[in-house]
Amino acid sequence: GLVGSEMCIRDRADVLRWLTSAAARKLLLTRPAGGVRRVRREEPFALVVGDAPRVLLKGQIDVLVDDGEAVVLDYKHSRSRSGRDHGFQLLAYALAAQQLLGKQRVRVGLCWLGDSDPTPALSAPSEANLEDFRVELATLGGALADARARDRFAGVERPKCEALKCGYVGRCWP
User: Fold this and answer.
1) Could you tell me which of 82, 76, 80 has the C-alpha nearest to residue 112?
2) Residue 60 forms beta bridges with which residues?
3) Which one-letter DSSP state was computed for residue 82?
4) pTM for the complete prediction?
5) CA-CA distance, 171 to 174, in Å (whole number)?
C-alpha cells in the first residue's frame, strides 16, 4: 500500500485533475448571471436539531458553493458501490448548507477523485426529505442521550459492522 507522502501526492494529483476539468471550472468559476459566486473550502459547521435533547452535529464540508443556491461537494478517494452509502452524510451537509447560507435549494454531490472523470452528479434533496432527515437526527440523538443516561449501549454484531465496512470496527471490536 501507499505510505503517507505517496498518498498525499496521489491525493493532490486527483484533486488537481478535478479542479482543472471543464466541469469544475464551470461549477466553481463561472459567475451566475447578475450575481456573485462564493466558493468555500473545508467549511466547518455545527448543526443543531431537536429540542430535548438538542443534537449538535459538527462537521466540515469539502466544497460549498454559494451562487444563489447552495452546492455541496464531498471528495471521495475510492468509489463505493453506490452514492447511497453516503446519503446520511450528504443530507447532513445539505441541512448544514441551508443553515450556513440561508438558502432553501441545495444540491449535493460526490467527487470520486480516483475516477478518470470525477465530475459529480448533483441532486437536490426535497424539503420533505430534509425534514424527515432532521427528525431522524433528533430521534437518533434522543436514543443516544437515553443510552448514555442508562449507561447501556445496544451493540451491533461484528459481522454486520464488517458488512457495512464501518470505519470503527477496530474500536468497537478490538
Assistant:
1) 76
2) 44
3) -
4) 0.81
5) 6
Contacts of 47 (CB under 8 A, 6+ apart): 56, 57, 58, 59, 92, 95, 96, 99
Q: One digit per residue, pLDDT tens: the chain, 174 residues?
A: 556 677 778 778 888 888 888 888 888 887 777 677 788 999 999 999 888 788 889 999 999 999 888 999 999 877 665 556 788 999 999 999 999 998 889 999 999 888 888 888 899 999 999 999 999 999 988 888 888 888 887 778 888 888 877 777 787 777
Q: Which residues are CB-neighbours of 107 under 8 A, at least 6 positions away? A: 69, 70, 71, 72, 122, 123, 124
In angstroms, the Cα distances linking 139 to 84, 92, 97 are 21, 14, 21
Residues 6+ apart with CB under 8 A from 2: 10
Q: Which three cell numbers stand for residue 26?
A: 464551470
The residues that bridge with 84 in the sheet, in sequence order, are: none
Count of CB atoms within 10 A of residue 136's CB?
Answer: 13
Residue 102 backbone class (left: φ over 0; alpha: ψ -120 to 50; beta: rest): left
What one-letter code names the amino acid at 94? A
